[in-house]
Amino acid sequence: MSTEIDVWGPDDAAALAPTGNTEAERILAATAMADPSCVDTLAATGFDPADIGDERYRMVWYAVEDLATTLAATAIRWQAVAHKLAVWHAEGRMAGRPLTEHELGELYMAAHPGAHQYWATEVTRAAIAARGRALSASWHVRFNNPAFDPDTEVAALQTEVDNLARPASQSQMVDLGDLLPAVLERAVTPPTLEDRVPTGFMDLDVLLNGGWAGGQMVVIGARPAMGKSTLAACFARAAAITNRIPTAIWSLEMSSHDFAVTMLCGEVKIAVHHLKRGEVDTGVLARAASKLPQIADAPMKIDDNAQLTLPGLRAAIRNLVRTFGLKVVFIDYLQLMQAPPAESRQVAVSMISRTLKLIAKEFGITVIVLAQLNRGNEQRSDKTPMVSDLRESGSIEQDADIVILLHREDAYERESARAGEADIIVGKHRGGAPGTVTVAFQGHYARFVDMAAT
User: Fold this and answer.
1) Measuring CA to CA, how many Å separate 325 from each of 185, 256, 317, 322, 362?
2) CA torsion angle for 171, 176, 177, 180 (degrees, to 10)?
3) Of 295, 302, 280, nearest to 229 (Cα)?
4) C-alpha torsion sign, points 332, 448, 258, 267
């Protein structure tokens, strides 16, 4: 008994070409002529006339939209629409034949004034279903392609599905007056864990108005071996372990095991070299055991996939926001991410940076990304880093809401009077003033702490 595998080809996909609700499109076009104000009304609700699949009716809609700016009449007669369509057809703006004046007159009689919202909903519903059928046909072919790559294509599919019902270009315009009550309420309401993620450092929280905010992209820049991964781990511990805020870490440089070592040592004060040598004494081990349940139950996910791509990251974040309540993301570090195809490295980094900012805004989460600094500060007598020291700094600095630079004098001068201290320099702060917070660096415990805690 043989088994045949049903593999579609391009002809099969074409058989499921998008088809909308032509009758709803016809009535909506007629209603636009009879009641031109509905064009603006529906635009304010997010209706996209591109969903009108029949070009004849879609161009009637556009003609009414254009004529409404100059004609003051409550209704736009079919004669004016016919003239506008004839001009557009002569200019090559229409692929097919426009409706004639006689056909437009008959169309005018099909108007349903006052029912525009219903018919617009029907048009949108049919358009989404049509795009879904076309997408299904397309992906049936792609899933059966021998070159199918699940790492990139599944993420791309999720993005395309997201855009079926909510096109990226859809307007989200709101009135200023509708926003002001919430602004005034914020003025007398201290931030909570619902809208701020504490950093774990008292003075830094004050400087950042309570901590990280949703929609922010934060960049932590430092030279190699300065401790930026350790600082990110401190921020992550404050979020997930101390405040139980759902957190995800993508560690492209450090394995998940090593990251767990950093987290445990920093939280329990275990010397890293003692743990790695298996020399932790029983007293410290007992202290770790007592805190282990709290640490183990922390809402934290770790991914050490070194082949992280932007589509894969967005798909994972989308899933974690829905299933895990994700609030804050750490990426260690930006220059190790798989860059999209681009004509130069600078353009590729710009694409990564911009996409991370859009992800933060789209999902309302904080994205904290680590980045390497160039050698600019090492060429200066004062080694204190500046925002301009970020590699490919133009786009990163532009997209970031907050740029934090980590500096330790004892990394350059072992006998420094500031040995054991570190400066967390807020070099850019879109929501407030920049500033510097000095903390203590306890490298043997893989952590930074408030100076008062020492």
Assistant:
1) 25, 21, 10, 6, 14
2) 120
3) 302
4) negative
At residue 157, does pLDDT exceed 60? yes
Task: Name the residue among 94, 92, 110 with its Cα closest to residue 25.
Answer: 110
Q: What strand order describes the sheet that includes 447-450?
A: 300-303, 247-251, 328-332, 366-372, 217-222, 402-407, 421-429, 435-442, 447-450
Tokens of 207: 């400087």
pTM, full prediction: 0.67
Torsion of CA 182, 184, 190, 195, to 10 degrees: 20
Any residues with CB less than 8 A from the CB of 79 and at least 6 apart, and which? Answer: 101, 104
Cis peptide before 57 (omega within 30 of 0): no
198 pLDDT band, cuts 50/70/90, is: very high
Q: How far is CA 423 from the centre of its chain?
A: 29
Core vs surface per residue 343-375: b (16+ CB within 10 A) or e: eeeeebbbbbbbbbbbbbeebebbbbbbbbbbe
- pLDDT of 333-358, one tens digit each? 777 777 666 667 777 778 888 888 98
Pairing of strands 247-251, 402-407: unpaired
CA distance 427 to 181: 32
